[in-house]
Structures are given as structure tokens and as C-alpha cells.
Specification:
Length: 423
Amino acid sequence: MNKYIYNSYKDIKRTHIPALKSFGKWTLIAILIGIVVGLVGSAFNYSIITVGNLRERYPIIIMFMALGGVAIAWIYKALGLPHDRGTNMVLTAVRDGKDLTLKNMVCIFVGSVITHLFGGSSGREGAGLQIGGSIASSIGTALKMNKSDERIITMCGMSAGFSALFGTPVTAGFFAMEVISIGILHYSAIVPCMIASVVSMLISSHLGGESVFYRVTFPNISVVPMLQTLGLSFMCAFVSILFCIAMHEVLALYRKYLVNHYARAIVGGILISILTLIVGNTDYNGAGMNIIERCFTQDVPFYMFIVKIIFTAITLCAGYKGGEIVPTFFVGATFGNFFGSLLGMDNSFGSAIGLIAVFCGVTNCPLTSMFLSVEIFGSQGIVYFGIACAVSYLLSGYTGLYNAQKIVYSKTMPKFIDKKANQ
């Protein structure tokens, strides 16, 4: 009996006590990160909404987008960050242990606000990942953390930034852990990521932030809606490939013909201004959350997803700031609304499947996508979303929005491949 007690004590001392110490340390750090990023994220969200309202009141602002692009390029150069890589920079920081600074946070904050003011097609959550990751990395540097801990604290900040802006804490927590290296889930960061994302969401909601939720009419589980979901998810995988190819090819064209960042910003801004005049409305400027909401109550034109891809690629590849995630939602929801109706699906059901499937295809994050479906649509449709994520993840191949993302394991077999997305 004494020997059993002694061995149990040794087991507790060897495993549980270190785990408790780690839990205590990361809980305190995560709460700190959640509070700081929640406050900054709330300020960022308020700024984006304010300039968006200003642009809608005075749409003539869009005609001066090139000036905003020049301002962004100047700010990045003045702060010594002329070769900023957006969200790819954060992914690289986590995987390679490289530091981010508060200068990164200032640049993406100000650059995104300018982009939204002048009508660039970009979102908020991608910027939130960069803002949160930069703040957390700076805190890690101040605390003199080792490289392993700095990787975790950066993921912690990414989760907090995403959650503050979208109000989906579980999605935010898992996205930071899943998006870095596909095939490996960084469970070592699960406690700080989840705590930070919840704290950040609470701070944001207390300061007026709203969680996103859409009402969807789900059919009873039966063969026909299963086949409809399968068919729509199949097509969404190819839409996600189209989106990623457009982003990478437009960036390659800019780099080939417009090496100067100011010239790139001017040309991109002028193109968006001209395209807005051609389209005749501002549906494709800014994030487009109003169009996403429309998809769940009525039919939308079939071409909207194509035009949004064009606007987004021209905007972000020219050096304007923000994020790719909400434009991805726009593309997925509008395509799902259109193609789902051809398959006989309710517009809200088709839009929901399209949004989740395209998001999964461009990010290569099936678990995150399923959590997202529950947090913004409810759990009733989880079977359909499970099918959508599985099909889109597999058929989207090795493309992705983020060049820095690594596909560690093959999508078709249990095989280690360790290749970057889009290679």
C-alpha cells in the first residue's frame, strides 16, 4: 500500500505538477493578452465601422483611393517595414520563432482603416490576426520568453485578435492552432488560445462589439439535401482554388510590372475606382458584410462572387491592408446562394454551405471551419457542414491563401510531405 502511494506521488510530481504550473502561467498570460488585444481590437473594429459609415455617406471618397494607397506605402516605409507580408508574416513568426513588433501592429491598424475608408475590398479578421499576433509577440519579448513560448504567445494573440473582431472564440482558438501547419494541430497552445479568445470576446462585447450569427433554414437529414450539399461543396472547392489563384497571380503581375510600392498602390487604387464606376454601386467595396447578410434572405446575382474576387485581388495585392477572410465569406455566400438555388436549395442553406466550404478550401482548416459553422449558424446543420468541409478540404488540393502555410501531411493518404501551400 505504501509503495502504491509512493509511486502515485511520483507520478503526480512528474506529470501533474508541471502541468499545473504550465496551466497557471499560461492562464495569467492569456488573460493579459485577451484584455490588451480585446481593447485594441475593439478600437480597431470601431474605427473600421466609423470609416465605413463615412464612405457610405460620401461614396466620392472611393475616387481618391490611390491617395490612400500612397499613404499606406509611406507609413510602412517610414516605420521600416517596406516588405510586409501580411498574414503570412504571422504564420512565419509562429513556425520559425521570429519576433513581431508593435510597429507591425501600428501599420496594419492604420493601413486597414485607410483601406476601408477609401473602399478597398478587404476584411477585418486577417488584420485582427496580425494585430493580435504583433501585440502578443511584443509582450513575449518584454517578458523575455524563450522561442518556444514566443510561438505559443503569438498564437494566443492571433486567437484574441480574431475573436475580438468576429465574436467566435472557439473558431478563433482553433484557427490559430490549425492554420500554421496543416496536418498538425498545436495542442500545446490550446489553453492560452482558448482563454485569450474568450477574454477578448468578452472585452469586445462589453465595449459594443457584436457576434455574427445568421439564421438558416436547414432541411431534415435525408438523401436529397445530402446530395445537394455534396454537389455544392464539390463546386465550392474549385471556387476556393480560383480565389487563391487570382490572389497569387495578381500579386505576381504587380511584382513583375510594378516593383515600386507607390506605383503599385496608385495603379491598384485607380483600378478599384474605375471598376466601382463600371459596376455602378459600392457592393464590392469594403468588407461586404451587408451583402453576406442579404444572401440569407434573398437571391443575389450569379456574378457577385467573381466580381468580389477581382476587387479583393486588386486591392490586397496592391499593398492595401485588411484581411482575406471576410471577402472569402462574401465569395462563398454569394456563390452558394446562386449555385445552391440551381440545385434546389433554400437560399439561406446554400449560402451557409457555400460560406463554410469556400472558407475551408482557402484556409485548409476543416476543424476550424466546422467550429465556425456552429458558432455562426447553430449546431442543427453540423452533419451538412461536416460533409462540406471534408469535400472542400480534399478537393481544394494544396492551394491556399497563405504561401507561408505548410501542408505537413498529404490530403489523400497518411504520408508526410511537408510542402508549402501553392507549390
